[in-house]
Amino acid sequence: MPRIPIGSWADSLVEWLRDHAEWLFHFVTTVLGGFYDGILTVLSGPEPLLLTGIFAVIAWWLRGLPAAVLTFLGFALIDSIEQWHQTMQSLSLVLVACIITIAVAVPLGVWAARNRAVSGAVRPVLDLMQTMPAMVYLIPGILFFGLGAVPGIVSTIVFSMPPAVRMTELGIRQVDGELVEAADAFGTHPRRTLFRVQLPLALPTIMAGINQVIMLALSMVVIAGMVGGAGLGGTVYLSLSSVDVKLGAEGGLAVVILAVYLDRMTSALNQRVSPLGRRALAKAQAALGGLKFLHWKPATSVATVAVVVLALIAGGMSFAGKEKGGAAGTDGNGRPVSLGYVNWDEGKATTFLWKEILEQRGYKPKVQALDAGPLFTGQARGDIDVQTNAWLPTTHAEYWKKYKDKLEDLGAWYDKTSLEIAVPSYMKDVKTLDDLKGKGGTFGGKIVGIEPGAGEMKILKDKVLKDYGLGGEYKVMESSTSSMLTELDRSIHDKKPIAVTLWSPHWAYDKYKLTKLKDPKGSFGSGDSLHMLGRKGFSHDEPQVAGWMKKFHLDEKQLTSLESEVKNAGTGHEQEGVRAWLKQHPGLVNKLAPSAKAAYAKGKDAGKTPTMGFPAWDEGIATTYLWKNILEKRGYRPKLQNLDVGPMWTGLSTGQIDVETDAWLPVAQKQYWDKYKDDLVDVGAWYDKTSLEIAVPSYVKGVKTLDDLRKHKDTFGGKIIGIEPGTGEMKRLKSVVSPAYGLDGFDVTEAGTSAMLTELERAYDKKEPIAVVLWSPHWAYSKYDLTKLKDPQGTWGANNQIKTIGNKSFPKKFPEFNGWLKNWKMNADELGSLEKDIQAAGKGNEDKGVEKWIDAHPGIVDKMAPVK
Which SUPFAM superfamilies does the UniProt entry name for this protein (predicted)? Predict the structure, then answer.
């Protein structure tokens, strides 16, 4: 019978869709990716135990006190085994997929229940969706949507939809026909019959379908870890590919806890949302005995209030604790670089080596472990920037031939490798591949292989076995590199025969006494070089990184020692192994990735992490980011926290904030100093003298003093535009300035500094009168022609200095930094130009503005932070 090329047809269909529906896939990727990112942001923002509390309250509302306690303990355990973020990623994927699935499946099920033709058409499609192996859905997912969360979401939607459609249809059909007829007899509209009769009675069955959707979605999300889906799927995949029992146990336990929680909550939800369920719940509670309190469930209103309160606390803590920080280097300015690797030792080691190098140079690298096929496919699509471990021209020849037009060869960094079959050296009579023939019984008729997508496996099956006549005698066992090494270790321990696929260089040859079987026919090829491959356009987008990688080279001793350190560090701690290795090779980072920035001497306290707080005022932002940049050049790792004035002074007093550079004393922030001065230290003034004032545009004639402002109240609409309500200037305006000049009738708006400046710009562009709360120094006086209203009564008080204030322990914890701050001064021109450069760089690019200012002030780093 002739072969029907269904696979070729499917391949052609996929290619056609990729060529003609790219716009659709891009739209879906954008929508689903944004939906996922939004939910993940919400779930990742709060402290884990607060979110755990919210989950526990929901469990209490649905199932009672024991379920709430177990929920809290379960999610607390996930946090304690450091799988919290991965769990939230998986939960986000499940929520996105289930929301979309239910939104589509339930209406489709209702339609199928009310229309036989639709039911007949939908049934075979659902059969196909439900019986197709789950992993098959990942193939078109990668091709259409690339790597990451989106292909996992799409695959999950397709895989989990059938139960919801079937159960919805079944539930609607099971509603007693006489009830429907009675509703029709009373003249009920079909829509009302559906929503008031059929859906309420079918709800238990529909909820059972939704429960199955969630369970199938979670299982598919775990499988999606193979294509970079992140979350617990990535943890499970990584543990499987590295045979890491510890990581596998922790990831698997987190999956179980999440699955049980979702299953129990959704199965109990029916009792809360359906009338039948609520009646059954009431009867069950009435029949309880002495332990009735354990099964008591709070009212919906009570549970809602508890969840809202916890959510508000969590959101407030997340906002208050939000911090800004930067990488130690400055070359990358925080730009992302994605690195992909197959979980082979040299690939993993070099990938994490480059992750560490790029982080030191100011980039934000992201690493993903993938099989060879998804890795090359994802890189060709542009989802992965670089892979460090392409074996060319032989092992990965198939992938290179397919995707070379979409990739860049950044060069070979190791030469030459070899592919081989190896056996333990105690197998004395096996020296070549010819010697394997006739000894299939000795080796159990198998050769232990690695990942099925590896080029070496394809060469072994397609060429080597045929050339040496081993095809009928041996079966190649497809597993993973780690599984192969585990089997090798077990066999050597027991002195059993084993033949494995290996390659050189590999640390296994140092650990075990192995024999590389000679290949007299050259079936494995002449040997590969290890290449760095970039996506097309990478050299243009990141010329500096590409330049570093093109010159990258490691010898065998360096590579094997790096592999050893990474392996000893263990899964999940690869970068710690890299750092240990770099300590043994001082200066190597500068050799491999010479910085385009000037080399700065490290400070005595390099490596320390001072926390700097700052308000959203221009001089505070400017000077804090300036010191952040300087400290990074001196080897520190500063952390920044943007806070309102009150919380910042409180944080300084408790030690949560080490230092801040924008304290206006002795007047503007006197109340904070008086309250907290016993817990603080005055490091010194760096600017002298400031002033507080109300300012108006100079085109507003006849308003020169605060007395004039009172007389022209109607001109300004009886309004003064203020700043943050907690500032000393605002408090002094209300308590002292306004009573002295009769300004109490003015409405003082309490917004933020940014809002005040926006309003000033708007009014100035339209030449409208406006009075704003300002201070000197401020860049607004350079940008706009403004009049500072005179204060003949001196109600604003004496001029302030801008001081640096630290926690009482700051000088002892950071003596070098404290010394720099004591001697630091800035004049009006320096501060004004710094603020101007940061304003020009834009929000989120403060570091770029600071870099520009430093470049324009040569020697400023050594002046502000001298190192002997």
Answer: MetI-like, Periplasmic binding protein-like II
Q: Cα 679 to the chain's mean position, in Å? A: 37
Q: How many CA atoms lie within 13 A of 296 on its CB side?
A: 8
The number of CA neighbours under 13 Å toward the Cβ of 512 is 23
Q: Quick one: three-class SS letters along 395-427?
A: CCHHHHHHHHHHEEEEEEEEECCEEEEEEECCC
C-alpha–C-alpha distance, residues 163 and 160, integer Å: 7
CB 342 within 8 A of CB 480: no
CB 156 within 8 A of CB 135: no
Measure the CA–CA gap between 271 and 273, rounded to whole angstroms: 6
Query: Three-state SS for 842?
Result: coil
Q: What is the DSSP letter of 167?
A: H
Alpha helices in 115-176 (DSSP H): 116-131, 138-145, 149-174
Residues 776, 779, 781, 782: what is their CA dihedral angle, to the nearest 10 degrees? 140
Q: How many residues does the chain have?
A: 868
Q: How far apart are CA 484 and CA 465, in angstroms?
A: 19
Place of tokens 């940061």: 838
Round the CA-based radius of gyration of the chain to a whole number and report it.
Answer: 34
Degrees to nearest 5, angle at CA 647 with 644 and 650: 145
Query: Please, what is the Cα angle at 412 between 353 and 577, to 5 degrees?
Result: 15
Give CA separation, 542 vs 338, 380, 552, in Å.
12, 17, 16
Residue-wise pLDDT tens digits, 101-149: 889 999 999 888 888 888 888 889 888 887 887 667 777 776 677 666 7
Q: Is the Cα dihedral 437, 442, 445, 446 positive or negative?
A: negative
Distance, CA of 218 to CA of 94 (rounded, Å): 6
Residue pair 613/645 in contact by the 8 Å Cβ criterion: no
* CA 99 to chain CA centroid, nearest Å: 22
CA distances from 504 to 528, 529, 570, 790, 826 (A): 10, 11, 22, 81, 60
Contact status, residue 610 vs residue 636, Cβ threshold 8 Å: yes
Query: Element (H or E) spanning 692, and its range?
Result: strand 691-697
pLDDT classification of 325: cutoffs 50, 70, 90: very low
pLDDT digits (tens, 9 = 90+) for 797-808: 878 889 999 999
- C-alpha span between 694 and 732 (Å, rounded): 12
C-beta atoms surrounding 26 within 10 Å: 12
Is the CB of residue 203 less than 8 Å from the CB of residue 210?
A: no
Q: What tokens appear for 664 in the block?
A: 């206006």
* Structural contact between residues 47 and 317, judged by C-beta atoms closer than 8 angstroms: yes
Residue 702 one-letter amino acid = G
pTM: 0.51
Which DSSP state fits 602? P
Record the tokens describing residue 773, joined without a space: 């709360």
CA dihedral of residues 158, 373, 376, 34 (deg, nearest 10): 20
